Amino acid sequence: MRAPGSYQYPPMDFVVYGKPAAEALREEAERLNAQRVFLIVSRTLNTKTDEIEKIRNSLKDRYAGTYDGIPQHTTREVVVKAASHAREAAADLIVAIGGGSVVDAAKIILMCIEHEIVDQDGLDGFETTPERRFGAFRNPKVRMIAVPSTLSGGEYNSGTLVTDTRRKLKQIFNHPMMMPRTIILDPAMTKYTPEKLWLGSGTRAMDHGIEAVCSIRGNPLVDSACLAGLRYLHDGLLRTKENPDDAEARVNCQFGSWLSAFGLQARVPMGASHAIGHVLGGTCDVPHYFCTAVMMPSVLRYNRPATGEAQKSIAAALRAPELDASDAFANFIGKLGLPRKLSDVGVGEDRFKLIGENAMLSIFTRSNPQPIREPGDVVEILKLAA
Hints:
Blueprint: E1 14-17, H1 21-31, E2 37-41, H2 43-48, H3 51-59, E3 63-67, H4 76-88, E4 93-98, H5 100-114, E5 143-148, E6 159-164, E7 169-174, E8 182-185, H6 195-214, H7 220-242, H8 247-260, H9 262-265, H10 272-284, H11 288-303, H12 308-317, H13 325-336, H14 352-359, H15 363-366, H16 375-384
Parallel strand pairs: 1-8, 2-3, 2-4, 4-5, 5-8
Antiparallel strand pairs: 6-7
Helix pairs in contact: 1-3, 4-5, 6-7, 6-8, 6-11, 7-8, 10-11, 10-14, 11-13, 11-16, 12-13, 14-16
GO molecular function: alcohol dehydrogenase (NAD+) activity; metal ion binding
Family: Belongs to the iron-containing alcohol dehydrogenase family.
Keywords: Oxidoreductase
């Protein structure tokens, strides 16, 4: 019998799909009576496509400005700079249009505006730690909308990842009102996303679903939604690799990202794949969208003693019920052509000790279903992925 639990519905109004992003965003700005809409966008979408211009034209007098300088891994110094531009524009609604780094930036920008943070040191003390789940942020008066161009799914939760480049450390910041008011799914925004980023971000979305299904604090809604999300993503990613112009498959991938994120929405604690992935990105400069590909089979193997039944469900969702979940996922990664081990992304055993130490700073290490008590336990997982 499952242990007692609960499901908390997130402070989000809508997920909108089936209409162009420019039209949907204009309608949402009107609904929210936003007069100064500030866009935080992918530089590629802004400079190499006409998608952002369509949105600016649709917003008309409600448009207040654009910032397109967010780097991979969302650094402290850049988000503070972007927030100053939004503040100068008197923004009353932030819209993130792009991948996970852009969405993460928009979330923390809300708090930089609210607390008038003007340099990166102003974020000290607000980060999430194993002892402190939420920082002392006030409810932000300015909220956000997300229009994702990748599949990682970070828009479906209230947390954000921001890198302190001085310490080479990726930190979590969290507040319920950093959750987007609305998420707009438009497959047209995804057709410019490079293949490796598209496929890799899809595996990051699967990470949310797998770790939620394996969590000791899951629930029936989360399990059902996440397993459905894994099926959508498994099938949709293979189809889009075969045919990048398959619009239906792209929509199905977006649905899979949404469903796989139900654990995040319910604040079901993630586990070692998230903890280690954050360190690989912040400390070792591994692209975030490759972290699940190289780590998840080993995490599943480490967690098998505590999550045997859950892993059977995961293997079935990956269309391989006859296999262990770790092998099913590894085979899937091979079909996508993504990196399959740490050496493929430039991480050698000489970094394992530091990764283990930094991973122990994560709240997700403490919530892994198979206990992780010391850095050496993390190193054990890393060796499985070497």
